[in-house]
Amino acid sequence: MKLDGNSAVVTGGASGLGAATARALAAQGVKVAIFDLNAEQGEAVAAEIGGVFCAVNVTDDASVDAGFEKARAAHGQERILINCAGTGNAFKTASRHRETGKISHFPIEEFDRIIQINLVGTFRCVAKSAAGMLTLDVQEDGERGVIVNTASVAAEDGQMGQAAYSASKAAVVGVTLPIARDLMSEAIRVNTILPGIFNTPLMNAAPDNVKEALAASVPHPKRLGNPAEYASLAVEMCRNGYFNGEDVRLDGAIRMAPR
């Protein structure tokens, strides 16, 4: 797809992978709208790249609709959607406390929360963005639009406590090909990236010894991923017109251990 002059929406664009992608797209001449809940960081990134910030909760229909309305008023209908909004938690399915013997299970409301954000929130933005893309003409390069979703290596090798997170990300992987097939006759492509362990703000909060141990577990290169490397792949998935229906790990060849 021709990038220069087109419009994009990046969910979760206020920090981490989303912010890096917003910057990378803007550097290619794309007009970027950032969807996020963090207004302070979102406004800062938008000002930096000449974009627009939209306060959006991806679990809420009205909030997402309002975000797309604001983004399109500023930049026109987007041809690019990058979904980076997401979160995680950690609870064992069922467990026994070593000292007290008390038995507990995964809080069902926490399982549902992760599914609603990571899976339903992603699909909500995909469906609404794709519907908007259908109003556009096909470009000279044969493209009408492109969508890139974010899963995780946990979709394939989730660790202890990651039942909800792994389920949500595996589902994002699972819907990639069906959505690509749904939209194939409309010249809209869909791909998904499965990042490994990346040096995001969330990871920055971890102690140095934890980050060093995680970096050492990556086969090669033995370091955490750089958000710019995610952004580079996302941009290539937009640019390369033959990239469609794919789920690609970006992880330094790591395979996550049980814990």
Task: Note the main attributes of this structure.
7-stranded parallel β-sheet; 9 strands; Rossmann fold; SDR_fam; alpha/beta; Sc_DH/Rdtase_CS; 259 residues; NAD(P)-bd_dom_sf; SDR family NAD(P)-dependent oxidoreductase; oxidoreductase
What would the principal axes of the Cα set say about the shape? globular
| H/E topology pattern | EHEHEHEEEHEHHEHHHE
What structural category characterises the helix and strand content?
Answer: alpha/beta
Number of DSSP helices?
A: 9
Low-confidence stretches: none
Name of the CATH first level: Alpha Beta
The strand order across the widest sheet is 3-2-1-4-7-8-9
Radius of gyration: 18 Å
How far the N terminus sits from the C terminus, by CA atoms, comes to 40 Å
Estimate the helix proportion, in percent.
40-55%
Strand content: 15-25%
CATH superfamily: NAD(P)-binding Rossmann-like Domain
Q: How many distinct domains?
A: 1
Can you tell me the CATH architecture? 3-Layer(aba) Sandwich
How would you describe this protein?
By secondary structure, the chain is of the alpha/beta class. The chain has a single domain (7-250), classed as NAD(P)-binding Rossmann-like Domain (Rossmann fold), CATH 3.40.50.720. The chain is built from nine helices and nine strands. Strands 3-2-1-4-7-8-9 form a seven-stranded parallel β-sheet, with helices on both faces. Strand 2 (31-36), helix 2 (39-49) and strand 3 form a beta-alpha-beta unit. Helix 1 packs across helix 9, helix 3 (61-75) packs parallel to helix 4 and helix 4 runs parallel beside helix 6. The longest helix is centred in the middle third of the chain and has 26 residues, at 108-133. The radius of gyration is 18 Å and the shape is globular. The relative contact order is 0.15. The model has no long low-confidence stretch (mean pLDDT 96).
